[in-house]
Write a structure and sequence with these properties.
Elements: H1 29-35, E1 43-48, E2 51-60, H2 65-68, E3 69-71, H3 91-97, E4 103-108, E5 111-116, H4 118-127, E6 131-135, H5 140-150, H6 158-171, H7 177-184, H8 188-198, H9 202-205, H10 216-225, H11 230-245, E7 248-249, H12 252-261, E8 275-279, E9 282-287, E10 290-295, H13 302-314
Parallel strand pairs: 3-5, 4-6
Antiparallel strand pairs: 1-2, 2-6, 4-5, 7-8, 8-9, 9-10
Length: 317
């Protein structure tokens, strides 16, 4: 189960944690174990930004998650890019055991705003699983702190960070990139790369399994190479997207190479080995004279494996 967290459960439903021992988003192993077994309505007291907050656990049915929750506007993660591919680290564990670590948020205008847990939120929707979220009275500073800690598990991409940098640069720093660099405590070069990456068409970003597969360096180079050739870039992205819909699988570095190939004059493309996906968990690959089929037991039902095995057994007769 790729990158999916495993929680050792206990029977303690609530806990009060000292602010001197726990960071803003308390991801301490013993705390996670206790929070993981809380029932709906149980409460827990946790420090956020040095201030104690009482959280109450809410459990929302999968089909109601989109209606009863929303993601806080300060969350820089692009929610439209959350899909089965970008959430492949969470989906198996949700299907096997449900959500193990609750999200964090607050209630505003009758709807739960999610600070930490937007990826778990969409995973609950895609898997029709219950969504577990600890709800407390939080101000924007505390929401931002929880949101930032939540993004530490899977950092936001250069594309997503670039969107935020561009907004801050225009609205807070009047275009002064040096001031923004000081505020973010990162180099001007990194900020520039991220902002340029964020200017790429969304069709380019969605070619990748998740936006983090396109680095700021690669995104910056694509933006510069296709400056003034945006229509060519977009048409190339649409072409590759159609190939992916047909079941062709590409590595991230291969995608960047294929995008850039459209700029080369009199391009001669040598035959390449192509992977094909027939369904989630079933892929094939031509390798010389061999046709290799790969079955992922984590994503396939036992009966499907048994049917394929029966076909192979019948071939022995």
């Amino acid at each position: 189960m790729k990158r999916a967290p495993v929680i050792v459960k206990t029977k303690t439903p609530s806990l009060t944690v000292s602010s001197s021992d726990v960071p803003a988003a308390p991801m301490v192993d013993s705390l996670i174990a206790r929070v993981g077994t809380m029932a709906k309505g149980n409460s827990i007291s946790l420090p956020v930004c040095g201030r104690e907050v009482k959280f109450v656990l809410q459990i929302i049915e999968g089909e109601k998650v989109l209606d009863e929750t929303t993601v806080w506007s300060g969350n820089e993660r692009d929610q439209e890019l959350l899909n089965e591919d970008s959430l492949d680290d969470l989906i198996p564990s949700f299907l096997l055991a449900g959500q193990q670590i609750p999200a964090y948020g607050r209630i505003k205008d009758g709807v739960i705003e999610v600070a930490d847990g937007s990826r778990r939120r969409m995973t609950a929707v895609l898997t029709s699983s219950e969504y577990r979220i600890l709800v407390g009275e939080l101000d924007d500073e505390q929401m931002e702190s929880l949101c930032k800690r939540g993004n530490d598990y899977r950092p936001t991409s250069a594309y997503e960070r670039g969107k935020r940098y561009a907004i801050r640069l225009a609205e807070e720093f009047n275009g002064n990139i040096s001031a923004l660099s000081d505020a973010e405590n990162i180099s001007r070069k990194i900020i520039t790369r991220c902002i340029n990456t964020s200017k790429l068409p969304r069709d380019v970003i969605t070619l990748f399994s998740h936006p983090g597969e396109l680095s700021g360096r690669a995104g910056d180079l694509l933006y510069k190479k296709f400056d003034g050739k945006e229509d060519l870039l977009l048409s190339r992205a649409i072409f590759l997207a159609e190939k992916k819909k047909g079941g062709i699988l590409y590595e991230s570095a291969e995608l960047v190479e294929l995008i850039n190939e459209v700029l080369k004059p009199k391009l001669k493309i040598s035959p390449k080995i192509e992977k094909r996906q027939y369904a989630p968990g079933i892929t094939s690959q031509n390798k010389g004279n061999k046709f290799i089929i790969t079955l992922d037991r984590n994503r396939l039902k036992d009966e499907i494996i048994e049917k394929i095995e029966s076909i192979l057994v019948n071939m022995q007769k």
